Amino acid sequence: MVGLNVLVYSGPGVSLNGHAYLLRTLRQFLGHRYAIIPIGPEALRKEPWESKAALLVIPGGRDLPYMAEMNGEINRRIKTWVQAGGRFLGICAGGYYASARCEFEPGTDKAVVGDRELAFFGGACVGCAYPGFDYKSEEGARAVEATVDRGAFNVPGSLWKGDPVAVRIHYNGGGFFVPDEGNSDATVLVRYPSDVTSPHDRSKRVDSPAAVVSCKVGRGTAVLSGLHIEYAWDFLAPSSYTQPYNRGLIALMRNHDAYRRRLLGAIFTHMKISVNPEALGDSPDPAHSMRVPTITPTFMVPARVSGVAAISSAMYALNNLAAHRGDCGAADMVLRDTAEDIHIVTAATGAGARRVSVEYQNAVLQPDDIGPVSATEAMPESRKHSVLVLCTPDSVPGTNEAPRFDMHAAVKYMQAIKAHTAGSWLMYSDTTRSTQTFLERNQRLLAQLPDGTVNVATVQLAGRGRGRNTWVAPVGCLQFTMLIRHPTLKQAPVVMMQYVMSLAIVEAVKTLPGYEHLPLRLKWPNDVHALHTRAADSDDSFDAEPAYAKVGGILVNSSYKSGEYTLLFGCGINVANRLPTTSINSVIRDYNDAHGTRLDTIPLEKALALFTAKFEELYRQFLAFGFEPLLEAYYRNWLHSDQVVTLADRSYEKARVVGISAADGQLQVRSLNSPHTVYSLQPDGNSFDMLRGLISRKIN
User: Fold this and answer.
1) 462 and 433 in contact (C-beta within 8 Å)?
2) What is the Cα–Cα distance from 353 to 570, expressed in whole angstroms?
3) Is the confidence at residue 81, as pLDDT, over 60?
4) Predicted confidence (pLDDT) at residue 258 exceeds the cutoff of 80
5) Are 493 and 471 within 8 A, CB to CB?
6) Which helix (H) or strand (E) holds 565?
7) pLDDT at 294
8) 335: closest CA among 316, 347, 318?
9) Beta strands 564-574 and 477-487: pairing type?
10) What are phi and psi of 156, to 5 degrees?
């Protein structure tokens, strides 16, 4: 099992502000390697989330609504998954919920007392640890000085950097953990200070109360916390803290923020969850908490297109879109498009010159700061801005503006590896929100872009995957969206275009001389997989043997007008990044080690040229003859020959895969019970596993 998803419960009972804070913290600490995905009770009940999950988090809120939604089947699945090796984090209400017993404010009008089903902690979570809690405010919040037991953590000692063992952490309504006698599966990681009192009798102090516990659950781990270890100081609004015991809360938390972040990093590391080292720095500046990286300009250069007339015509059409004068100087012209304001400028020329000035870039592309949110206010939405820089062949940006993608090399590869339409123009941004969303939601820009334009980014802040998924893309992943305008042709149905693209990715590599036997495969319908040997520092504790793991996926969005489809192929291909699973270049190196060969790894810029050229080669065959001539290559590369699947909608009947339909791409299987019966299968729409929950249709 390769767990790439961190699932955050988002159903009834969740504190909205707390949920937002948690998502931001998880993206900061874990977003380099995992997809952070909110998930509701319906998906937990019906979808096959377990196979891809690395961590499930139940945040703060209210325990009783959690029970109403998850008691029974959902809790059974969660518990089974954790026992099999899953990892669970319960914070505040999530800590009460995952203990064997909840004792919240007994004897008061807020009282919630009773047994709980998950019972990862074998005793009671008793609270509140401090009086004054109010569901609708921060009235009872404190910055408590908790004591960390470093010896209880399974982490390198160097992680702590000499931090004090007493750390100020946000508290509001959480409990302390009281074990049943004989319960030896829980280890105390953090303790409250000595001023905690019992909610049963506030005159009595509690001796060494446990604030954070780690529980062994079969092969898995559950960590439960009464403290809001996910809260950073700059999330909080000073106006929310007016009591004598919490007026200085923000200042105390700021002073200890680096210690808190390293404590949270230690908790994740203890759970064998990979942490982004950048989240563990010393600075209390918000840049180490939740400031989103700044969007950078998108440069657009002619790649495979040739001829002065063609280049000039495209640039003229795009320049004419910018009909509004902006606020950043006389030359600032803006296209007010569907989703955002696009500032269109012509690149400056000259060797070594910047194509767009730093001053102009900073004026237009303000950082998307995440400011403090009080208990009552919502976060404002603002119209987004972007910069599109039109470049001629002699004004391609250099490494000073594109340090992580060599645009000069990319253009040279595009021109050397021939194609006519695919990759005609190259757009590139170091950091963008989403290459696909930028094109899809700005319809006026999209209408004027030349056919075959490819939009590339090194970092996507909101890379998209299928369903609710996001695409986890460390540096080294080739992320691009390609525009193709596809005619209505009976022999070339648009639904098969995703198969053409996924086949092109694999064939582009395996048709290179010497690369024919690389273990790259297709998983139906459009994922690229590679043989994955677990890295020494991997957190994929279930992977003892090499197995195929996903290294790429394709998401196709389409619109139709005047007899033509506008297709946006969103592709994310792990070319050079070893983690989170493996990559094409890792597979090449492993192959060289195993076979004594010296195959070259593939630069990102060359991979883009290879993928787009191979797509065009296959696409031209598809336009003329349909998918039938491509089936042999598709089957040669796929993972499903003779695979047995379960038909959930036919009383879990077993059937063997025999192929796909060249007309619509649906999976075709033959019943094991009735060999003359063939079913056509389509996915049920779940976001986690296309081969689970298949919907069948008998075709003979």
Assistant:
1) yes
2) 32
3) yes
4) yes
5) no
6) strand 564-574
7) 79
8) 318
9) antiparallel
10) -65, 140
Q: Residues with Cβ < 8 Å from 303, sequence gap 6 or more?
A: 410, 411, 414, 415, 423, 424, 425, 426, 454
Helices (H), 563-639: 584-595, 604-625, 631-637
Give the pLDDT of residue 699: 66
CA distance 325 to 313: 22
Q: What is the radius of gyration, based on Cα positions, of the chain?
A: 27
With contact defined as beta carbons under 8 Å apart, do 427 and 455 qualify?
Answer: yes
pLDDT (mean) for 310-336: 88
So what's the pLDDT on residue 51? 86
List, for residues 196-234, the tens digit of each pLDDT value.
999 999 999 999 999 999 999 999 999 999 999 999 998
Which H, E and C letters describe 547-561, residue by residue?
EEEEEEEEEEEEEEE
Among 370-379, 383-392, 531-540, the least confident range = 370-379
The amino acid sitting at 389 is V
pLDDT digits (tens, 9 = 90+) for 84-100: 999 999 999 999 999 99
SS (H, E, C) 355-407: CCCHHHHHHHCCCCCCCCCCCCCCCCCCCEEEEEEECCHHHCCCCCCCCCCCH
**How would residue 696 be classed by pLDDT, with cut points 50, 70 and 90?**
low
Cβ atoms 345, 389 nearer than 8 A: yes
Question: Rounded to whole angstroms, how far apart are CA atoms 376 and 114?
Answer: 31
Q: Is 349 exposed, middle or buried (0-12, 13-18, 19+ CB in 10 A)?
A: exposed
What are phi and psi for residue 646, nearest 5 degrees?
-110, 130
Q: Centre a 10 Å sphere on the Cβ of residue 438 and count the other Cβ atoms it contains.
A: 28
302-336 b/e with 16+ CB inside 10 Å = b?
Answer: bbbbeeeeebeebbeebbebbeeebebeeebbbbe
Q: Residue 231: is it exposed, middle or buried by C-beta count within 10 angstroms (0-12/13-18/19+)?
A: buried
Q: Give the Cα separation of 557 and 483 in Å (integer).
A: 10
Strand stretches in 396-546, DSSP E: 425-432, 454-460, 477-487, 520-523, 527-532
At 324, which helix (H) or strand (E)?
strand 324-325
C-alpha span between 214 and 267 (Å, rounded): 9
- pTM greater than 0.85 (yes/no): no
Give residue 514's identity as a one-letter amino acid code. G
In this structure, are residues 172 and 141 in contact, taking their beta carbons and an 8 Å threshold?
Answer: yes
Of 629, 614, 633, residue with least CA distance to 509: 614
Whether the ω angle into residue 128 lies within 30 degrees of 0, i.e. cis, is yes
Residue 525: cis peptide before it, omega within 30 degrees of 0: yes
Pairing of strands 35-39, 201-205: unpaired
User: CB–CB of 90/58 below 8 Å?
Assistant: yes
pLDDT of residue 357: 82
CB under 8 Å, gap of 24 or more: what pairs does 559-567 form? 563/487, 563/488, 564/485, 564/486, 564/487, 564/488, 565/485, 565/486, 565/487, 565/488, 565/494, 566/446, 566/483, 566/485, 567/483, 567/484, 567/485, 567/486, 567/494, 567/497
pLDDT at 371: 41
Do residues 556 and 565 make contact, with C-beta atoms less than 8 angstroms apart?
no
Cα–Cα dist 84/1, whole Å: 11
**pLDDT score of 184:** 64
407, two tokens: 């645009």
More confident residue, 520 or 526: 520
The contacts of residue 593 (CB under 8 Å, 6+ apart) are none
- Between 647 and 375, name the one with better pLDDT: 647
Strands 220-225 and 87-91: parallel
